[in-house]
Design brief:
By secondary structure, this protein is mostly helical. It has a single domain, classed as Multidrug-efflux Transporter Regulator, Chain: A, Domain 2, CATH 1.10.1660. Helices cover 44% and strands 8% of the residues. The protein contains five helices and two strands. The protein has a two-stranded antiparallel ribbon with strand order 1-2. Helix 2 crosses helix 3 (39-47). The protein is elongated, with a radius of gyration of 24 Å.
Length: 104
């Protein structure tokens, strides 16, 4: 028998992702799309600390957040509780105007 080490073919990243079970990860843009909101809104909510975000990872010169399904669902639960400035302002104005006559 030959006791020499077996040379394994190096696997590409794509092959590894197919062969190894892993958690799906999404970019902030993809997470915003899954949540049904604009990426700028999600960025503002993160900056204002209204929603928890995954820790950014430095890739080259970019800071990237890798969102999991659990992270997205956690934010989805919080979204209805966030007071959206413009919508909230107009809702308050409508409540004050309840004594007005409706337009014909």
């Amino acid at each position: 028998m030959d006791d020499s080490p077996v040379a394994l073919n190096p696997l590409t990243e794509l092959e590894l992702s197919v062969k190894l079970p892993h958690m799906a990860q999404y970019s902030t843009n993809q997470a915003a799309k899954k949540l049904g909101i604009a990426v700028t809104s999600l960025d503002r909510y993160i900056a204002a600390k209204k929603v928890p975000a995954p820790k950014p990872t430095k890739i080259g010169k970019w800071n990237v957040r890798a969102w999991t399904e659990e992270d997205i669902e956690r934010v989805r639960v919080l979204l209805p509780k966030i007071a959206n400035g413009r919508k909230t302002r107009y809702q308050k104005q409508r409540k004050k105007q309840t004594g007005r006559k409706p337009k014909p």
